[in-house]
Design a protein that fits this description.
heterodimer, A: 389 residues, alpha/beta, seven-stranded mixed sheet, 16 strands, globular, B: 207 residues, 32% helix
Chain lengths: 389, 207
């Protein structure tokens, strides 16, 4: 079959690879109908995250149709149209039992790679680094799904493929980030980043009851999406002297009650601090340009909550004193998609959640390199490149 | 054989540890330090870095886990294509695992101690080139029906490979064995990359 593969830093191509097959009894084979790029792919494409291997099939946000199931699969069958969270749970360990699905103990084939880096392994994920499991990804015609019964969610008839696609990662990650802030009536929630995850965090905050949502980015087309599709207030950080002061002004001097950071290690910014991060990252002296994370921590009101969705490695100059002295609560995780999926599908079915506007550009698998180039460089207002295998 | 292209020492260390090829990057003092740190995190003993110990809580009783680890074929099921584990009768086992520098380590292990529901210990059989001792200790965990499993592996290769690299390789094996057995017991299967599609030549990835 054809698949988009990582061959090295900034080297993506479409290759012929073996078809997947059932290996374990709870496996299923999916015919991929749609698969999309994610900002976190850029971290290994640009070489900031280790343990990729030459020839890896990438892609972790997807939906499709089941074509084959293993002998122990009971709840899904060939022909089912399903969406699958990118992080894989087993449904049996203590973490899955507590709805902390991305922390699953039993789905990462390479726990020995993560223990030295994190202390304990996370669950596995499709189409990412080998430390995170090394499972072949979704930018392919077919893929092997593991523990299919607990990870496949049937897509209701009312919900189109394009809507279901983003329930695989952008929506559950964004909604989890909003949920971490426990939105209440009267709350103002500021969200850094208007990519797929940031926009979904904004929608999540709205649906969960926040009074005001303020989005921060620099790209006019993404800020327009936030205001036009979601009706949130926006700040273009390149057009203001200080985001922190602007937010203070907008909130009567108090600051946003809760903040969500949806940018990650390759954030952009302005001023001296951004230049410092850029140089240190280029020299491999730090892995992260944490401009937006530091700004979010500074902007948050006293006693507020900082929800971190961006992917980070080793962050330099982390303002722990600000966190401590302002009594902030930090919450973070990779997505626990299985916990959010039933609610997301209900919202989508009722027409209250339609993330299909994120898919700004469509490509065939053969156009993998071009699609990633447009996505990375945000050419032609590309928010997400969607592949139709 | 494919290689990492991301160019960071952390990446090389992590990938090599898991591939059992730690010595490939252990040529310099810095690389040895990185491998040593990885080994320490994987349970290698700083005083005796060719020894690794890790503990994991598994959802089964001490009695069930005693029976599980007493049967050598279960180590083979858990480690899949990472190591060869062959029963030689009476609890004795022949082991073959990748060692530092890409050289395979082989040894015969004799089941020298078994206390029902508590402990299993295999010591080197006479005549083994490599000297290796494996111990599994079982303690009832506070959670109902769970057991804290402590696994200790001490490997002394006859070739005299660098101890930190040996500790990292032993640590990787112990972590794989513990998490693999937890997955098999709790879910009925071991997570694996066998037959994993990729543009690399060969039949899927190691485990």
């Amino acid at each position: 079959m054809r698949a988009i593969c990582w061959n090295g830093v900034n080297d993506i191509s479409t290759e012929t690879v073996n078809d997947p097959s059932i290996v374990n009894p709870h496996d299923a084979i999916l015919k991929v109908r749609l698969s999309t790029t994610c900002g976190s792919d850029l971290h290994f494409i640009d070489g900031y995250i280790p343990t990729m291997r030459e020839g890896d099939v990438i892609g972790h946000e997807f939906m499709g149709e089941i074509v084959e199931v293993g002998p122990e699969v009971k709840k899904v069958k060939p022909g089912d149209r399903v969406v699958i969270p990118s992080f894989i749970g087993c449904g049996r360990c203590t973490y899955c039992d507590h709805d902390l699905w991305s922390l699953c103990d039993n789905t990462n084939p390479n726990p020995d790679m993560q223990v030295p880096l994190l202390g304990y392994p996370t669950g596995g994920i499709y189409g990412y680094t080998h430390a995170f499991g090394g499972y072949a990804g979704s930018h392919a015609e077919y893929m092997r799904l593991v523990h299919a019964d607990v990870n496949c969610f049937h897509v209701p008839e009312n919900v189109a493929d394009e809507q279901a696609l983003f329930l695989s990662d952008a929506a559950p990650t964004g909604f989890m980030g909003a949920d971490f802030t426990e939105p209440k009536p009267g709350d103002t929630i500021a969200v850094w980043g208007c990519g797929g995850v940031g926009l979904m965090a904004q929608r999540g905050a709205q649906l969960m009851g926040a009074e005001r949502v303020i989005a921060i980015d620099r790209l006019p087309e993404r800020l327009a999406m936030a205001s036009e599709h979601l009706g949130v207030e926006t700040i273009d950080y390149t057009q203001v002297d200080s985001v922190v002061e602007t937010l203070k002004e907008m909130t009567g001097g108090r600051g946003p009650d809760k903040v969500i950071e949806a940018v990650g290690m390759e954030g952009h910014g302005t001023g001296l601090e951004y230049a410092y991060d850029r140089v240190k990252q280029a020299m491999r002296l730090e892995t992260d340009r944490a401009v937006s994370l530091r700004e979010a921590i500074m902007a948050c009101r006293k006693g507020g909550t900082v929800s971190v969705l961006g992917v980070y490695g080793l962050t330099d100059k982390f303002p722990m004193g600000v966190v401590m002295n302002k009594g902030l609560t930090i919450r973070s995780a990779q997505q626990h998609g299985q916990h959010y999926m039933p609610r997301l599908l209900e919202w989508a079915d009722r027409g209250e959640l339609d993330p299909s506007f994120l898919g700004t550009h469509r490509f065939s698998l053969e156009e993998g390199a071009k699609a990633y180039d447009m996505f990375k460089n945000k050419v032609d207002g590309c928010v997400r490149a969607v592949f139709t295998p | 054989m494919s290689k990492d292209k991301d160019g960071t020492s952390a990446a090389k260390a992590a990938a090599s540890v898991a591939a059992g090829a730690a010595a490939a990057v252990a040529g310099t003092k810095l690389a040895q330090k990185v491998v040593g740190q990885a080994g320490k995190a994987l349970g290698a003993d700083p005083e005796q870095p060719n020894r690794a110990t890790q503990t994991l809580t598994i959802g089964a009783s001490t009695e069930e886990l005693f029976r599980f680890y007493r049967e050598p074929t279960n180590f083979q099921r858990v480690l899949r294509n990472l190591a060869e584990v062959r029963s030689q009768g009476d609890g004795d086992v022949h082991w073959k695992m990748p060692g530092p520098g890409g050289h395979a380590l082989e040894w015969d292990a004799r089941l020298s101690e078994e206390r029902r529901g508590e402990r299993l210990r295999w010591t080197p059989a006479p005549g083994s080139g490599t000297s290796a001792e494996l111990e599994v200790r079982l303690h009832p965990a506070p959670d109902d029906r769970c057991t804290a499993v402590t696994m200790r592996l001490e490997v002394e290769p006859s070739s005299g490979a660098a101890a930190p690299a040996m500790g990292a390789a032993a640590g990787a094996l112990v972590v794989k064995a513990l998490y693999g057995s937890k997955a098999l017991i709790e879910t009925g299967e071991v997570p694996t990359l066998e037959k994993n599609p990729s543009a690399r030549p060969g039949e899927g990835d190691r485990v």
